[in-house]
Every structure is written in structure tokens, then in C-alpha cells.
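Running log. JK asked me to keep both predictions on one page so they can be read side by side. First protein, sequence followed by its C-alpha cells:
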Amino acid sequence: MSIGERIRKLRMEKKLSLTELASRAAVAKSYLSSVERDLQMNPSIQFLTKIAAVLNVSVESLIVDPQKSPEPVDDEWVHLAKEAMDSGISKEQFREFLAFQKWKKQSDEEI
């Protein structure tokens, strides 16, 4: 869900018209409309702060999609990463290893 979609959803839940939200937040109605319709995909933090205050939510809740919260990392992955760190493997070496594995997989699929 985009920032605009979240703003629109919250606005509708609060039973506010576009004009009313724009007026209370002291932002241009046309700009708010373009954000809600995803024509403006990167609104300023100042804009988001004003909108969040009227909607009584945090700015973060407008930016972060709660449906895309990261899945928890299972203990085995944490253990493997710790083991790699303890053995002296650098982040760059690990990135190179991953890049090689991706290349190898792609090469195998092309054959």
C-alpha cells in the first residue's frame, strides 16, 4: 500500500473530506489529491507531519507499510551469520559469495 493509499484510507476512516483534511493540515487540496492518487509519490516530511497530526497518527505509520513488515529471521540463520562473523568473513566477502551464487544459478538455468 502506498503512502497516498494509506492517507486516503485513514482520511476515510476519520470521515474527513479531501477539502477538510487539506484545510485542517494547512496544505494545498490539489497537492493532497495528487498524493492520494499516487501522482506525487514522494511527499515531503513537512507535508506528512501536517497530515499525520490531523489524522492523529505517526508519520512513520504513513511511510511504513504494516503489511510488509519483515519476517522474523529464524535462529538457524542468526547462528550461521554469527558463525561467519566469528570465522572472520567480512561483509564484502559474504556479498561476493552471494553474487557468485546468483551468477552460478543464472548460468545453470541458461544451460
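And the second, directly underneath as requested:
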Amino acid sequence: MKTIRVLIVDDSASVRTILTEILDAEADIAVIATASNPYFAAERMRDEVPDVIVCDIEMPRMDGITFVQKLMSQRPVPVVICSSLAEAGSQMAMQALEAGAVEIITKPRVGTPQFLMEARTRICDAVRAASRARVVARTATIDVPRKLTADAILPPASGRPIERTTDKVVVVGASTGGTEALRRLLEALPESSPGMVIVQHMPAGFTTAFARRLDGLCRIEVREAATGDRVVPGLALIAPGNHHLLLRRSGAQYHVEVRDGPLVTRHRPSVDVLFRSAARAAGANALGVILTGMGDDGAKGMLELRTAGARTLGQDEGSCVVYGMPREAMRAGAVEAELPLDRIPAEILRLAADPSTKPAAVKR
């Protein structure tokens, strides 16, 4: 088993200590060094280049965003941003993702034992995901929570056929690398595109800024979801961080429900929960899309979608930052067609306009 070598960069000594204790407790992760600012980190990297860097944003001498930009232009290394939940920090975290960071986690803090355990799980999972990420040059052993399934939030569908409607709904799941993939996907869609409901693995406090950023870039409206929001053409609703998002149906109309609950497939929000709810509420009226990400969240839910008659698409390996979630969905037989990211928007529009059309050929 290859050990993931981590460099921690944070101006807080206590944060460096906590992160080191959390990561060093894992058999497959080792902290090779810590640094109080990017300049000391750069000196340390002359001796040994880490597999992953865990980096704060607000630091003396050089901020984390500038550090990420310099890394990606000179010596690309996967970076996990470790930030507070402040609104200003959320905006900066979005900038860090645009600069090339692959994950966002929140700084560990005092809380309930369950909170601390979940925080440990997120931090270690983020480092593992980052270690598998493809990064390219750009210009300028602890106990973990039991891996629950969507049954913990929503029972399986009854198997009864679902009445077709004229409105189609697109449900999308993404994780590592998904912030950039979603930007490219949504930017390519016209105002007339079908309503979308999205789960991107992201902590609480970041999704509001993420949705606001996308809304300013896209022709469609993008916003953080709230219980009762209707799913209508030209609108994309993003699951709030640390909350599950479910699709519901009332007559011929769709709306969403934001719900608390345990981690499902190690995540909250969970793609499996969204996809299962869409299988129950929309069936053949739905179109499922699974994008880049580590792990298997979404594979079981997408299979339920396909079984219910929905069309299903996966992002191909060549365009993924981490080909984990789409690969597991493919292995489960849940994906009808695998496509490069830049072809997915047109395929969504084509299948939504004529669900009976044959999907693009599956890449083997």
C-alpha cells in the first residue's frame, strides 16, 4: 500500500498539530512536514515533493490562493484547502478552486464526538481523493462512521410505474473536481434547459458562494436549494453543504426538500440520496448525470434511476479529475453512456427533447 505523503501549510500551530494527529493516525497517510507559510513550504519542497498539500487561505507573507496559483503554474501538486466557514472565506475558497485546488474541507474544531469523527473522516477522505487527482500546469487507523446507504434517509421505491409528465428533470452528482466540471456543464446550457438538481460534495458555508459564483457565469439561474423550491426550466438548485437534498413531486410539478440526517456513503449531501429520491419521484421523467469524484457515492442511486426508466450519463475517464464515482456507476451497470465532459451538455438537451432517442455509444 502506497503511503500518501502530506505537507501541511497553516499559520496556526494548533491547527497544524490537530491535522497532523488526524492524518498520521491513518495507515496510508503520513505527514512529512508542516510549514507556517508558503515560503517555508517552498523551502521544504526542495527536499521532498509531497503527494498532497493541505493549505490554509489566510496566511502571512503569501495567501493560500496565490500559493495555489504559483504551484499550478510551476510545480503542480494536488492541494486541499482547509478553511473556516466564514462567508468571506467561502468566497476565497471558490477562488482557490478556480486557481486549481481540488478539495475544500473545514478546519477541525471542538464539537460533539460525532462531529469530530465526521470531521476526521472528511479530512482523510479529502486527502485520499486529492492524491488520486490529475493536476496539470495552469497559467497565471481511526474508527470511522459506519458506511450507511440511502435507506437511512429514504426507503427504496415501491416499484409502481410513475406517470409521465411533459417536464423533465436532470439530477447531477459530483465530488472531487466537480466544482470546475459543474461550471463547464452549466455554462454550456441555454436558458431553456430542463430544471436541474445538483449534489456537489462540499461543506456547509461554501455552497452559497459556489452557487452565487455559478449564477454570475451562466445563462441559467443557479442558487442554493431551500425546501419547497420548485424545479423549473432554466434553474439549477444546488444542495446546501452538510444537508441531504431530495426531489419531490406534487401532481405534475417537482420541488425539493432539504433534510438533515446521517452521512450516507460517507457524505452529506449524498448523491445516492438525491438519485434515489429522483427514481421515486420522477422515474422515466428524470435524467441522471454522474461526474468526476472519488468513491462510489451515486452508483447505487443511479442504478435505481436506470431501473425506473430514467436515462443516465457518466463522465468519461479522460475528462475526470478523479475517475471514481463514474467508474463505480459503470461497474454497477447504471450508466447508459459515458461521454467527455464537453459533450454532456448537448446530450442532456438531446435526451430531454426526445427521451426515446438512442443515447451516445458507451465507451468501453
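Observation for JK regarding the second prediction: Residues 141-146 have pLDDT under 50 and may be disordered.
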